[in-house]
Amino acid sequence: MADNSKTEDTASDSLEAAKNASNKKEKLADQVMQNPQVLAALQERLDNTSLTPSSYIETFPKAVIRRIDALKKLQVKCAHIEAKFYEEVHDLERKYAALYQPLFDKRREFINGEAEPTDAESEWHSENEEEEKLAGDLKNAVVIDEKAEETNVKGIPDFWFTIFRNVDMLSELVQEYDEPILKHLQDIKVKFSEPGQPMSFSLEFHFGPNDYFSNSVLTKTYKMKSEPDKTDPFSFEGPEIVDCEGCTIDWKKGKNVTVKTIKKKQKHKGRGTVRTITKQVPNDSFFNFFSPIKVSGDGESLDEDSEFTLAADFEIGHFFRERIVPRAVLYFTGEAIEDDDNFEEDEEGEEEELEGEEEGEEEEDAESDPKV
Which of 263, 270, 276, 222 has the alpha carbon at shortest distance from 244? Predict the structure, then answer.
């Protein structure tokens, strides 16, 4: 029994000694890191060594790494606060959408000829007022039956279709056989999710009576998430679209532009006879927009093409919500497109200027090369 007690005392003393040694090492490391000369020497060594950020961090003492870990934990808390901020922003968007809507309703009335603007509502002073006045004088010199013209023209013809044609992102999706349908598009609305519901927004495409489908409204809903990913919280940059849901289009017989009928010949293996069959296959069309790829709910990843298609879909949804619907008249006239193009050119110009400052010699060589 005495031997066992002595052994336990020895083990206890060893643990205590190891603990004291560890504490002394940490205190010594702290003292070393507070010495300016040591820090300067360490910095010089790091400057002379090509290190990745992660390997650079690994060179620090354990006490410093512990503090960095504490900063990361603070950063995660910041991400969760930021997520709450964006949730409140979504609430504000919903609130102000209700304030915008009466103006958008009046816009719809003017576009579709349901109402005429008053003189006060239509008074607009443009930057090119003198040029417009001259054009007006020339127009007045020509005999025009204004009454007949006013009778024939209702609202603003092809308003939304013209926007589709003007905006590259949308015109790329529109096929020739889509155009007659889009000429019946009367309005596009953005609707936000109700308070207490998961964050989302819906696009409503309102159509007049047409020969193609019986729906008066086609909808597309984008589901959003505003919370950091548990496995990668530092990637959070605000709300992101995580899924979207379309609607069923009730096509009239023979009018579905999203499919096409093809004829295919089949040869019988035994008899050698040939028969012709017809089958329907998918067809390129803007109206595929309402039948999006579904994000798998079982955690399975999409293939590269599907991911690209889904990302493009999300981008288009954002563009409708943030640009097209709020600034429709400017995309109709092309003014918003010119603004977007100028902004992109300015960015490129600044980048080229910076490159010229940093790589002047290379730029001179390029200018002297006739191939450039």
Answer: 222
> Rounded to whole angstroms, how far apart are CA atoms 25 and 35?
15
How far is 158 from 172, CA to CA, in rounded Å?
A: 18
CA 202 to CA 4: how far, in whole Å?
76
Paired tokens of 94: 């919903």
Q: Which two tokens stand for residue 3?
A: 């031997």
How many residues comprise the chain? 372
Say what the pTM is.
0.69
Mean pLDDT check: name the lowest of 23-27, 40-44, 365-369. 365-369
CA-to-CA separations, 61 to 57, 140, 162, 301, in angstroms, rounded: 9, 85, 64, 40
High-pLDDT (> 70) share of the chain, %: 68
Q: How far apart are CA 339 and CA 244, in angstroms?
A: 30
- Give residue 5's pLDDT: 54
What are the C-alpha distances in Å from 181 to residues 177, 217, 219? 8, 13, 16
